[in-house]
Amino acid sequence: MKERIGDLKINGQSSSAGGNYNDVIVNGEGRIAGDLDCIKLKINGRCDINGNVKAESVEVYGSNSIKGNLEAERAKIHGTADVNGNLSVNKAEIHGSIDVDGDCNAEIFNIAGTFAIEGLLNAGELKLSLYGASRAREIGGEKITVKRKGKYDLLGLKSRIMSSKELTVDTIEGDDIYLENTQAKVVRGNNIEIGPGCEIELVEYKNGFKKDENAEVGTHKKTQ
């Protein structure tokens, strides 16, 4: 393990080369030019990081962009986060929006807002509360819940642009699945309930299947 060199604190507008720290606190606008390895990363304002981030906990109150991967035990985002690489986290709570160019892996992943995952979104427990249009290529998990929320916006601009409040995804696979306002080609699982506002081409289930009268399902079939 590389030796940590104390804390990094940015107040106002400043920059750092990155490195190994105990705590990294940004109050204002910060730029970090390389990889960052720390115990705690807390951002109040904005921080752009041109590298990978590894931390035990990440808290963002504002906006954060990471050019590489983000790896953390806990992540709490109140605002926006852009990750150009992969996101790996034990527990994530996001109120706002997150964009991930790669894959997203978590044990618990709760989003209230919007998201765009270009790769696979995989979690033990997924709870997605849609406040605007969101998308992922594939979603997998043990328990998956997608619900459309009402009028609200932490990040007003993004939700006003994306006003359909729908999830678009190619494939969803899980044990227990409940969906609202979701467009998908395939939904596959043990127990599946298709709620209002959904348009699903194919549903394959093992144990149970329910469909709301205001949902459209092209084909549904029971599998072994």
Write the layout of secondary structure elements.
Blueprint: E1 8-16, E2 19-32, E3 36-49, E4 53-66, E5 70-83, E6 87-100, E7 104-130, E8 134-148, H1 156-161, E9 167-179, E10 182-194, E11 199-211, E12 216-222
Parallel strand pairs: 1-2, 2-3, 3-4, 4-5, 5-6, 6-7, 7-8, 8-9, 9-10, 10-11, 11-12
Explained architecture:
- There is one protein chain.
- With 224 residues, this protein is mainly beta.
- Helix content is 3%, strand content 75%.
- The longest helix has 6 residues.
- The radius of gyration is 19 Å and the shape is elongated.
What is the succession of H and E elements?
EEEEEEEEHEEEE
Strand content range:
over 45%
Structural class comes to mainly beta
Count of helical regions? 1
User: For the largest beta sheet, what order do the strands appear in spatially?
Assistant: 1-2-3-4-5-6-7-8-9-10-11-12
Largest sheet entry:
12 strands, parallel
- Terminal CA distance reads 48 Å
Integer average pLDDT: 91
Approximate helicity band: under 10%
Q: Report the principal-axis shape.
A: elongated
Radius of gyration: 19 Å
Q: Got a strand count?
A: 12
Unreliable residue stretches: 151-163
Summarize this, please?
The chain has 224 residues and is an all-beta fold.
Considering the chains and any ligands shown, give keywords for the structure.
single chain, 224 residues, mainly beta, 1 helix, 12 strands
